[in-house]
Design a protein that fits this description.
By secondary structure, the chain is an all-alpha fold. It has helices at 2-10, 20-71, 74-88, 98-105, 123-130, 139-164.
């Protein structure tokens, strides 16, 4: 028993957590661990954003390529149509209405086409906008894409106005309605 009491009397162990150096060291470890966790979260978010940006660009590239492939067969047809319309000289040719001239001069549609105006895709663009993913794309590229899709929308709106307007009304085709 005397041995234990002698060692106990000479071995003074300071109480941990009561010195300034301990608190500073503990604070430093907390600061480093929070900073490391924040950095890792930022790095993970950056990697996820880069992957999303790559997916967005790939989707837009594929959609644009598909739209170009849909448009290309129509270019020669529309050139021929424009030349035929210019040759006719305008409306009221030989008593025909402008619409009759328009239909009469239309060249044959490209193989497999059901309309003189192709339907173009825009789902990748819409998904990029609704998912707020355009913020990850280069500004100049996003601006050019925005212009292309805005023009595409103008064409779609005009096609819709034709299809749901004068081309859908029977009076358009009734010769007695034209005077």
């Amino acid at each position: 028993g005397s041995w234990d009491s002698a060692v106990e009397a000479h071995a003074h162990v300071p109480k941990i957590g009561r010195t300034w150096s301990h608190w500073l060291l503990e604070g430093l470890f907390i600061f480093i661990s929070v900073g490391l966790a924040f950095s890792l979260a930022q790095y993970g978010e950056h990697r996820a954003d880069r992957k999303l940006a790559a997916r967005v660009l790939d989707g837009l590239r594929q959609e644009m390529a598909d739209n170009l492939a849909r448009l290309e067969p129509y270019v020669p047809m529309h050139r021929r149509w424009l030349a035929a319309l210019n040759k006719e000289g305008g409306t009221d040719v030989d008593g025909k209405s402008g619409l009759e001239v328009w239909f009469a001069t239309r060249p044959e549609l490209p193989p497999g086409a059901k309309s003189p105006f192709p339907l173009l895709r825009r789902s990748a663009w819409d998904a990029a906008i609704s998912g707020n993913a355009l913020r990850l794309v280069d500004f100049d590229l996003a601006q050019k894409l925005s212009e292309a899709y805005a023009l595409q929308q103008v064409v779609a709106d005009n096609r819709g106005r034709l299809a749901n307007g004068p081309l859908a009304e029977t009076a358009t085709y009734d010769a007695s309605a034209r005077q």
